[in-house]
Amino acid sequence: MGAPADNDTPLKQQLRGIIFGTNTTAGRYFDLILMVCIILSVGLILIDTIEPIHQAYGGVIRVAEWIFTIIFTIEYLVRLYCSINRWHYARSFFGVVDLVSILPSYLALIFPGANFALAIRILRLFRIFRVLKLLRYLSEGNILLRAMVHSSRKIFIFFFSVSLIVLVLSVIMYVIEGPQNGFSSIPKAMYWTIVTITTVGYGDITPQTSLGQAIAAATMLIGYSILAIPTGILTAEISQEMGRERDLRKCSNCGHKGHDKNASYCNHCGTELESLELEIEQKD
Amino acid sequence: MGAPADNDTPLKQQLRGIIFGTNTTAGRYFDLILMVCIILSVGLILIDTIEPIHQAYGGVIRVAEWIFTIIFTIEYLVRLYCSINRWHYARSFFGVVDLVSILPSYLALIFPGANFALAIRILRLFRIFRVLKLLRYLSEGNILLRAMVHSSRKIFIFFFSVSLIVLVLSVIMYVIEGPQNGFSSIPKAMYWTIVTITTVGYGDITPQTSLGQAIAAATMLIGYSILAIPTGILTAEISQEMGRERDLRKCSNCGHKGHDKNASYCNHCGTELESLELEIEQKD
Amino acid sequence: MGAPADNDTPLKQQLRGIIFGTNTTAGRYFDLILMVCIILSVGLILIDTIEPIHQAYGGVIRVAEWIFTIIFTIEYLVRLYCSINRWHYARSFFGVVDLVSILPSYLALIFPGANFALAIRILRLFRIFRVLKLLRYLSEGNILLRAMVHSSRKIFIFFFSVSLIVLVLSVIMYVIEGPQNGFSSIPKAMYWTIVTITTVGYGDITPQTSLGQAIAAATMLIGYSILAIPTGILTAEISQEMGRERDLRKCSNCGHKGHDKNASYCNHCGTELESLELEIEQKD
Amino acid sequence: MGAPADNDTPLKQQLRGIIFGTNTTAGRYFDLILMVCIILSVGLILIDTIEPIHQAYGGVIRVAEWIFTIIFTIEYLVRLYCSINRWHYARSFFGVVDLVSILPSYLALIFPGANFALAIRILRLFRIFRVLKLLRYLSEGNILLRAMVHSSRKIFIFFFSVSLIVLVLSVIMYVIEGPQNGFSSIPKAMYWTIVTITTVGYGDITPQTSLGQAIAAATMLIGYSILAIPTGILTAEISQEMGRERDLRKCSNCGHKGHDKNASYCNHCGTELESLELEIEQKD
């Protein structure tokens, strides 16, 4: 099914440079136009759910949605045409996202049921995930991601501990307040405990008894304190990641490390530093 | 009462490896199955408190609970049988948790009162604490715990200061707003102050007078700022703990410290590093 | 239009020292008096919007506002008179702010419409931005600003990711809860998601279904956790900025860095350190 | 008025050791008993404001309050008697607190008005500040305090900027939502903005228009982000303070610094370290 790489025409190569590339002017313009189209089409779907707007401009929005669907269909077909390995693109994360974001409009033609149409309209929202592509080119995102991956076990332990605290507090509140004060079941009490411990505090369920209010106050203080834990974990990791990034630039003369990202000379012996791009590529 | 260690049969040893051990395949499977049972039995107790579910599936849930009770009873008896010092296990934290988690079902047979049954059902929730056992094997948990233990005095001083601020603000709000606006007593005003200073903000009691609203705004800003304090304390401690963990790995050749957890060679002189497990055991 | 610099009389120079300068006693007093006038005039505009106060003291407030308008008019004219390049001042940020803060009162004389008057009164609030001038003299503000500028790309990625999470959660909640529970459109559901994910939690829209409450709880926990990310980014940046500031003071004898801001002697070799002011000026 | 130090009898010295001292057994017991009395007397005042309790146990509480008043009166007189410089003690912060905490009960005898009695009862709450004395002996408190003092200018700039943001957002919301949606004046809109920006979110005033809800969402995101700033400032300062504390312990042999608080030997050359108490005293 996948097209072999040998029939790679110049047209295909050029299209690939525009559609998949990001370092040519044409590629950057294409990305920009595509992003505007994505945001506009998502914006249309959002405001179409506002009843008065749907009734007044429903027709216009439907036409605009079809225009975007056709644009995205052409884009999908061109991507499929010019990719080196078509099957590989079609199965890739962004290939699936590209397909899912155009299918719903066509499905709505075939199955014109009202409720089904909503589900289809929602599917179209998947198109927004394309924007995630841009994250790839931002090195700062990598630091955050690496910090999160490194701290994931600590964060997991944190959430595990919070779950236990929530469970115990919910049972206590369920016993104290009971169904007559809105704590109609332990899952409902758990909802209240999470609302309280995360300091959201809707106020749709509130303790009415004095003892319940005392335990609620304790719950708030617990939530207020443990908030410090994931922050502490992530801050320590981000600090370390930032330090590591600085350490990437080593002077070739004296071996001194820890230069700023935009430094050109070693701050210890004055030797010119290699450019950052080179260093990072060497690392990979 | 405690069994002497000399009549230690191979069967006992094998059972001990499965039930108490965590580094054999059988031991790991046993832990996994037990954890699933614990979570399912706790889940049952939770959803049984939802009235419609209790009325529709009450019978099924009772049967399932008895099955779990029998499983946990067998587990408790086997643990008691194969432990080197039975009395020591029975008195240990997890020994008591294991007993407490099966007793309620049997007590419900003897005392069939409706209200009493609820108390018994809640006792069964203590079984969840067994999951805490798993925390032992996660070294990351130790860092968090050590950071918390190290910062406990600072956190205590913080909470002590917060209590004083809460007390003073509550008295002021009680005097300004008074019982006619929901601040019916100083303890009630303290509940409001904690709801506000932790930024929970239920909205069940809100200031009505202009002066009250001004002081409420000040309370919020205070709460917003002091939240930074426990976070700062814990972050500084976690950073230090993480640095200390890195320092555990010292090069045997040049004495250089601060290697990554998964580094194999000294990043200063290239000598192969001893494995982390060894180093940590040496420390203990 | 701009006045040439050659007709620079001693009177102009003296006025310039008082009005624009900040290091003479007269200049400092002028700044202080001006700031009090700004705060008082803004305070008047604020309390004038309280209906009972407007009805009782409306006349007094109008008179006081005219006094402030005249003071600010004189200030503007003197500034214009004594600035080296009048056109340059008039077009500068603070020149425009100064003009905008006096114009509304005169416009209210010409167009005496009630609704228009409100718009004019609001324009007067722009005068508060003058206070921003004082920020310039606080070096601590620079650290915060630099930390924010340095972390702006990371913060942008963070907000971009949060927007995507908000969008997805809003669509899910809109489908689950629907218009009958207050989630009347996706934009309204987005409002709810932001209220929840930032842990504000008004409680004007709350989930009513069990599934909705479960997803709401997940939303809160997500919001609770990701709060750690911008804090971690900024803390790491501020730490680095503070370290950089300490590094500015280098011993001229041994080259040792990292002295305290108010240190007079090198903490390594005891040589007297150059004053901080000199060092910073050298840097600029 | 102040007593000269020459008539310093052994009785006075002994009393001073018990009452003002904290390193003798008797002094520690005295502090403990006093603290229990303070907490109990404050607790009484708090629960006496609960109407049902006041009606049922009002008489008992009044008697208990008189007992505490007499205890604190004796304590005050003994403190005055045995202090080296009586006038100095009487004018000191804690001297005034001690007097203020006993006066109200006596004033209530002279002026028996009901409303006045409340004011007097509240004055008695000042006694709680005595507990602050204990903070002095906790070195951890000093770190927090120093970190806060060091960061006070940054925190001030932060609050100043937040005030400007709050003012601008309040004016915008007042114009958009107006009195018909609860934003009856700019000060009221400022109350709402603070409730929102600190993520408290009572929900007593909520935006009703679409534009208002969009700006409210922006306000929440601003509040959510700027929360990171004071946390970042304080964390960086606390980290620095903790590093400085570690640096206090310098090896007398090799000059190596950065030993743990409870280390006994230099971790660089093995020389026994001087005790921490000595080092800290030397510093002061």
From TrEMBL, chains A, B, C, D:
Membrane topology: Multi-pass membrane protein
Entries under InterPro entries matching the protein: Ion_trans_dom, VG_K_chnl, Volt_channel_dom_sf
Subcellular location field: Membrane
Alphabetical UniProt keywords: Ion channel, Ion transport, Membrane, Potassium, Potassium channel, Potassium transport, Transmembrane, Transmembrane helix, Transport, Voltage-gated channel
PANTHER family xref list: POTASSIUM VOLTAGE-GATED CHANNEL PROTEIN SHAB, VOLTAGE-GATED POTASSIUM CHANNEL
Domain Ion transport: 28-241
GO cellular component assignments: voltage-gated potassium channel complex
Top-rank lineage group of the source organism: Bacteria
Name the record gives this protein: Ion transporter
GO biological process, one term: action potential
GO MF annotation list: voltage-gated potassium channel activity
Membrane-traversing stretches: 29-47, 59-81, 101-123, 155-176, 214-236
